Amino acid sequence: MLKRCAVAVGVILSAAACGGGQATTTGSQNLASVHIQVYPGTIVSLMSYAASSEGFFKQNGIDATLVPIPGSTAGQAALTTGNIDLMVTSPGNFLPSIADALKGQGKGFQAIVVAGQLYIEFELVARNDITSVSQLKGKTIGIYGGLNSNTHLIAKAIVAQAGLSPNDVRYVGTTTPAATFAAMDRGDIQAAMTFDPAAYQIVKAGDGHVLVDLRTSKELPAYLQGVQFAGMWATPAYIKGHATEIAGVRRAEAQADIWVHDPKNLAAVEKLMSAQMGDTVSAGDLADFTKSNLRLMTAAYSADSMAAWIAFDVATGYLDTPIPLSSAWASGTPQNQHDVEVLAKS
Fold first, then answer.
1. Which helix (H) or strand (E) holds 129?
2. How far apart are CA 268 and CA 248, in angstroms?
3. Widest CA span of the chain, in angstroms?
4. Which residues contact 267 (CB under 8 A, 6 or more apart)?
5. Do residues 115 and 297 lie in contact, with contact meaning Cβ atoms separated by under 8 Å?
6. Distance CA 190, CA 211 (A)
7. pLDDT tens readout for residues 62-97
8. Is 65 a member of any domain?
9. H-assigned helices in 82-149
10. What's the pLDDT score for residue 18?
11. Which of 186, 219, 252 is the last residue before a domain boundary?
């Protein structure tokens, strides 16, 4: 059994979090220890924070340790070493690695999505003097999540759709929303594929505007419109050996999904959002900011969504050939809001 003492990608876990995978006791209730990646200072992990604060994890037999890791590369390293059990990311950060593993190549690593987190949350923001994608020629675009990610592929697709060649723009990776905002503010980049709060900060500071809003626009291929994007991933070995934990986390996340979308909980949800955003979102904007981002959150992740991302990665050359759906999507994952509601009440 892997030991989780000390450091998980720069985050020191408490002594109580060591010895992961073992059951702990709270009162008379036995809880299974599960370590879950969260993205601090962003909208991404709001449902997990809600599941923790509202007691949904414990109600479902889970002693959840939320481990702040701000990026996919560091998250995958933590998942690989066993410092976390569940990682939050988008398909593009795993599909090529899954393909390599299926081919028996040593660099490959397998993980499978077991629950949803978000629909596509990205916005392409640009300096105020750039009013069309075609005007990005000769400019530098910051890519949250790094190069060769799904975010990068989406940005390249948007640029190509505007008639620009791959060499017409330069791409650089940005690590966090704060780093994206700072790079834009300094002028190191002239546009960014990012999400809130960075997009909000850039617009609020007067440094730019939303050029393409992927949350609502039709800039993506038709088969990617309305699909889930970020999900919770686990290794096949963990899924096989921890079915009870997977079921508990799924149900807790489903209950959190219902809770955050219930209008009577809006004030409490705003408080959770404020705790993550800190002073990056003004008090006057918090209500609208929360409502606009709540629509992105879902505990569902459909098989069709994963199939669409596999097709996208093949179309963009990120995958040579399609991989089996079962290698990236776990049976039993809620696929739509009806599934989420049924699971939450089960």
1. none
2. 23
3. 64
4. none
5. no
6. 12
7. 999 999 998 788 888 999 999 999 999 889 888 988
8. yes
9. 95-102
10. 39
11. 219
Starting at the edge strand that comes first in sequence, how are the strands of the sheet with 87-89 ordered?
A: 87-89, 228-234, 112-119
Q: Residue 308 falls within a domain, yes or no?
A: yes
CA distance 299 to 314: 26
Query: Which domain does 240 fall in, by range?
Result: 7-119+227-345
Residues 84, 179 contacting (CB under 8 angstroms): no
* Amino acid making up residue 290: T
pLDDT > 90: what percent of the chain?
52
Whether 269 shows a pLDDT value over 80: the answer reads yes
What proportions of the chain, in percent to the nearest 5, are helix, strand and coil? 45, 20, 35
3-class secondary-structure state, position 79: helix
Burial 203-234 (b: 16+ CB within 10 A, else e): beeebbbbbbebbeeebbeeebeebbbbbbbb
pLDDT tens-digit map of 205-257: 888 899 998 887 676 777 788 899 999 999 999 999 999 999 999 999 999 99
